[in-house]
Amino acid sequence: FAILDKNRSIVIKNLQNETTKKVVPPSAAVDMLFNGGAAGRLLLRSEDKLILFETQSRRVLGEITAPKVKMVSWSPDGSKVAVVCKYGVLIADRNMEQLCSVSETVRMKSGAWDSSNKIFVYTTLNHIKYCLPNGDTGIIRTLDAPIYVTKVHKKQLYCLDREGKARVLSIDTTEAVFKLALENKKYGQVMEMVRKSRLCGKAIIGYLQKKGFPEVALHFVKEPRTRFNLALACGNIEVAMETAFVLEQEEGNSDCWHDLGSEALKQGNHQVVEMAYQRTKDFDRLSFLYLLSGNTEKLKKMLKISEMRGDVMGRYQNAMFLGDVEERVKVLESSGNLGLAYVSATAHGLEDHAERIKEAIEASGGEVPEVKPGASLLQPPTPIVRSDNWPTVEVEKHTLEDLGDLGDADEDHAETNGNGVAHAQEENWGDDDDDLDFGEADGGDGGDDIIDDFEDGDGGWGDDDLDLGDDEGTGGGPSPSKRDSDVAGLDAGGFFTAPQAGTPATTRWVANSSHAADHSAAGSVETAMQLLNRQIAATNFDCIKDKFLMSYVGANVSIPGLPGTPSMKMNPERSAGLPIKAFTLQSALTSLKQAYAYFRGGKFADAANTFKDILLVVPMIVVDNRVEASQVKELLETAREYITAIRIKGAMGEAAASPSRMTELSAYFTHCNLQPAHLLLALRSAMGTAFKHKNFIAAASFARRLLELPEVSSEKNADLKVKATKVLQKSEQQARNEHDLDYDESKPFMIDCNKLTPIYIGQDKVKCSFCGSTYSPDFKGNHCVTCNLSKVGVETLGLVSMSSYS
């Protein structure tokens, strides 16, 4: 078993309580241990993170953002873990890849997995609730007093009350099991539960509509109004029409026919549209429908109906649709518009009518209008093809019983491997000629340069893997049809897919994604800035303006057209509804290799520029799975640490006149989270600086840490090992510091990125909402010195690397 001692070291003990191993945790801020779900693994709580740590290899296998963790609960098969925080639950897999998160407004009390490994049951102050790995939640029952769950088995919940008494409560998880079956497309089980369980409620119906399963709800909903709305939602015109008849009889109004007519018109089902207009007595739209479909026979009937109704305007419009000039003249004459009637009759060559109307005008003392010569006959086009309905995609209908035999869809999870980094030469570290005089009497190595250059090996600075997934209608009944589009007809579960109205690509991008890169690619810079402000408190957008432009240019392509025609604008997409990526994780890792090369070679200005560019690219990187999202976060942390290290290195040059400040900065340099090979150089430099300024306690500490590094035992570093040993011996003999240093190696600390001073554990601090740089509280509200993008001390959601559509 493992414990965390008072020095925050991990102590491994056997069953006799004897210490067998001590392990330094990966973070100095670790304050609690949890079960890691497997032998040799631990979960470490470090501020707002939960780290999966392997004690044998001393590697961090994964981490997840989880503020104020209270407890963790592993599923019986060890495949998933539920992290119970103060105000929420996070569910992750065994590698700390987040599956979902749930927030609560009241404090969490406890939780446990049921025996099926798929439902996490948790309690709050007054409720027992459930959470599924896909993020669905619900209430199982209410509580009179808080309880603490110990085990969940089938329909029994074992718990303790506040008096410490064991209790067993009966719970009903049918709703959760139903949602799981629907999620896994086990439609046979879904239908069985619909028959035998009382699930038909507004919440379940709303859930089915939200998840895109209105066809499922349609099979067990009996209430006519709800059934009608569901039929429209899934495009089932036949069921909607049947329900409309029932609603018309029960409610005594025909409002539903208007909605049915609108949906049928979208699908091109003229038969249902005609019936709907007839039921609502919408004669104007009915006449226009007959005009569009070329049904002249029914247009003639509409002309007679309008005459019987005394509808002068409707009669005239129908006459125009039919091209019946004589009827139009009669309408104008009967309505008292003798002048218009005379002009119409004369222009169309109806001499008998024109002469009669002329006499009537003169008899009434009116003026006969002048008819201009050269009038042309205007007739509506003669319909050549008279079709009833638009062409539809023929699909096969399924019942839920048939769909129950469908297999579950397999999903392929892509794995992304990190790449190594390039080798480069070291130079310009500024410590090549440090002369450390040991004062030895013999002529051995006493006058030699203890901190000289060592040759590059194959390991170098850059070999570390960053480790940074159709039925026609018969009789009078029309058949359901769909718009002539590219809709496939059936979805993965065998249900009808309702046709959707087409939208521009850029509009889809904005609607489908919550990532700033996708919004900027669509040209919606304002919403992109709003997203970054809400997610990472970004306010200074000048430094990221070029990234917005590159995202837009990369996702908008102009292709030359034919001679004399304009160019064509294309919008390449990485998947349906999302733009192509202008910035990728792989390109950022390539830049990281170059930055490592600059750092190794001592070209700190070039390294700083490259790391800052990587830092500003991170908010614009879109990834497809949580593994890559974790790598993006590691990339962000790496860039932050190296930028801080380079700033400290620059400050060392400015503090050359102050030996104490010089030694302090060199010490802080060694506490930046650098690659092992880079840390070796930092320790070598700090050891030389401290020894030269006679701060022997600090020099001994650096020499000791240097000798503990595995890299120092390599053949190429043999000379360095000898010199570090001598520094350690000499420093232990002197055992004094010449200057008072603001540095205590025994206390974990973070570096104030503004003052470049330590902030020890327990002291107040604030962090940048984006890069996580640490500052003292008086710096709150200012722009971060490291990224120059976000404000310090603003509580936000955090960096989003995956679009919601993904």
From TrEMBL:
Gene Ontology cellular-component annotations: COPI vesicle coat; Golgi membrane
Spans annotated as Disordered: 365-391, 404-501
Molecular-function annotations in GO: structural molecule activity
Record InterPro entries: Beta-prop_COPA/B_2nd, Coatomer_alpha_WD-assoc_reg, Coatomer_asu_C, TPR_COPA_B, WD40_repeat_dom_sf
Membrane-topology annotation of the record: Peripheral membrane protein
Biased composition (Acidic residues): 404-413, 428-473
GO biological process terms held by the UniProt record: intracellular protein transport; vesicle-mediated transport
COPA/B second beta-propeller domain span: 1-161
Keyword terms: Cytoplasm, ER-Golgi transport, Golgi apparatus, Membrane, Protein transport, Repeat, Transport, WD repeat
Positions of the COPA/B TPR domain: 202-348
Protein's UniProt name: Coatomer subunit alpha
